[in-house]
């Protein structure tokens, strides 16, 4: 069965069954060799915009200059 054939069938499932399907698929992903699963009790560093106010200023300047060029 192709993904195109499967999607309409999945859309007909109840919300509960969709959640169960998500869990099954996530568990199957966990055993694939081509991805790095998250490990328990390990710290992962997530980069966020907090503390990067200068980056916001640079982006705002870029947006304003782009607006001026297109106007």
Characterize this entry briefly:
This protein has 71 residues and is mainly α.
Describe the structure.
The protein is an all-alpha fold. It has one domain. 61% of the residues lie in helices and 0% in strands. It is built from 3 helices and no strands. It has helices at residues 3-11, 15-30, 53-70. The longest helix has 18 residues, at 53-70. The N and C termini lie far apart (50 Å).
Query: Helix count, per DSSP?
Result: 3
Note the beta-strand portion.
under 5%
Q: What is the general shape? A: flat
Structural class determined from secondary elements: mainly alpha
Sketch the topology as an H/E string, one letter per element. HHH
How many domains? 1
Average pLDDT metric: 85
**What gyration radius follows from the Cα positions, in whole Å?**
22 Å
**Strand count:** 0
Helical content class: 55-70%
Instruction: Characterize the main sheet.
Output: none
Can you tell me the residue ranges where pLDDT is under 50 for at least 5 consecutive residues? none
Distance between the termini: 50 Å
């Amino acid at each position: 069965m192709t993904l195109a054939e499967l999607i309409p069938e999945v859309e007909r499932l109840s919300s509960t069954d969709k959640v169960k399907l998500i869990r099954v698929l996530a568990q199957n992903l966990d055993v694939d060799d081509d991805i790095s699963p998250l490990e328990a009790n390990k710290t992962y560093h997530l980069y966020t915009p907090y503390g990067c106010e200068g980056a916001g200023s640079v982006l705002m300047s870029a947006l304003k200059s782009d607006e001026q060029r297109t106007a």
